[in-house]
Specification:
Trna Endonuclease, Chain: A, domain 1, five-stranded mixed beta sheet, 26% helix, binds zinc ion, 10 helices, 3 domains
């Protein structure tokens, strides 16, 4: 660990200093550097007095950066690698005695900070909610049971989250009692944090709420969030809410759109009991979804999604774990002859003079993934989708 004095907002990848925010959320721009840094092991964040090592992970075709396990809480609070969830970790294990943790740190055995964004997307993928096949149906009841099954195989902080996640079921009068019992069982296990106690519970004890946002209303010092099919309101303090609005930009923008829309916003919240037994979220991530709970980032994607569903196509939505959708296709047709077909669209704001070179680049990337490619350049009209292979009648 080197001592360089700090430069908040910068990280160093294989000797080159770059913007922390840009590298965290637009990793596709830094692939060459990341490939080198992965070999040399030289990737560090400069937001604290001591370089904080960053980990480089591969997801799909893309390398991306993350805080070193158990060190997310050591980053400056304004740093994109900071996560308050890591407050309850034993940093001495990783850093040695030379660095005194800033502020009190509550030792814990296996508390690993959880990237909620990652968790939400992993659950979506595990539940297959980014896929569609002709003839499928999917309402919240089905989506919920698929998500619950996916949560059984998902770990956070060293233990499975299945027992620690509550996904509101579709309410019905005849199931009222069992729904209520299940909620009370979850509620009674929630960690309670008293006003004086600034320590977060261990991540292995954190509890999660997952559902479609029904409403967000302002209250003193924050907002109250309510999920569909559930009556409880969850308090989120102003500073956390600002962070959510910043990091979950698409979800947040969508929440502000009041008109009828076929898209909605999914939230995953880390919850605990605050004073007066009210539900308090200590972290939250939002994800915008279109019809059938298939992730869709903006209106043009909603239109493409609607057409795919209308035409009864088989397709999937690549999930962008790194919050940037840059090199991913918007959707991928899985029913075209011989090869899959990536569907890419450019929005109305895309610079016209760059469309050709951009399209060629997409073609190359698609081809390296063994796929054909199809484009829709807005505001031009959406052309016909590539035809599906004839389905075997036998
Ligand atoms: Zn940092």
């Amino acid at each position: 660990m080197q001592n360089h004095g700090k430069h908040i907002g910068l990280i160093r990848i294989d000797g080159v200093e770059v913007s922390a925010v840009d590298a965290r959320y637009r990793p596709s721009n830094y692939q060459t550097l990341l490939v080198r840094a992965r070999k040399s092991g030289r990737a560090a964040c400069l937001c604290s007095d001591h370089d904080l090592r960053l980990s480089i992970k591969k997801r799909g075709d893309l390398l991306h950066l993350a805080a070193w396990p158990d060190q997310a809480a050591l980053h400056d609070e304004s740093c994109p690698f900071y996560s308050g969830l890591g407050r309850a970790v034993d940093v001495s294990r990783n850093l040695g005695a030379e660095v005194a943790p800033q502020g009190a740190v509550h030792p814990a055995k296996s508390a690993i900070p959880v990237d909620l964004w990652d968790m939400l997307h992993s659950l979506w993928k595990g539940a297959g909610l980014n896929k569609w096949n002709p003839g499928w149906r999917r309402d919240w009841g089905l989506a919920r049971s698929l998500l619950q099954r996916a949560s059984a195989g998902h770990e956070a902080g060293g233990s499975a989250i299945a027992e620690r996640i509550y996904i509101p079921p579709v309410f019905s009068q005849d199931k009222k009692q069992s729904i209520n019992d299940e909620w009370m069982a979850f509620y009674s296990r929630l960690p309670r944090v008293s006003a004086q106690d600034r320590f977060r519970p261990q991540m292995s004890e954190s509890s999660f709420l997952l559902g479609v946002v029904a409403s967000v209303e302002p209250c003193s010092r924050g907002v109250l969030i309510r999920l569909q099919h559930h009556y409880a309101k969850i308090f989120l303090s102003s500073d956390y809410f600002e962070r959510v609005a910043r990091l979950s930009r698409r979800g947040w923008t969508q929440l502000q759109i009041t008109q009828q829309s076929k898209s909605s916003v999914v939230a995953i919240l880390v919850v605990e009991l605050g004073v007066d037994d009210r539900l308090v979220a200590t972290d939250c991530v939002l994800m915008r979804v279109g019809q059938r709970f298939i992730p869709s980032n903006f209106e043009a994607e909603d239109l493409l999604l609607a057409k795919l569903l209308e035409e009864g196509r088989a397709f999937e939505r690549p999930l962008s774990f790194a919050q940037s959708h840059k090199q991913c296709a918007n959707f991928v047709l899985t029913d075209t002859p011989a090869r899959k077909t990536e569907l890419h669209l450019t929005g109305g704001g895309f610079p016209v003079h760059r469309i050709d070179s951009w399209s060629r680049e997409r073609e190359q990337i698609a081809s390296s993934r063994g796929c054909n490619v199809w484009f829709w350049h807005k505001p031009g009209p959406m052309g016909d989708l590539p035809a599906a292979s004839k389905r075997d009648a036998s």
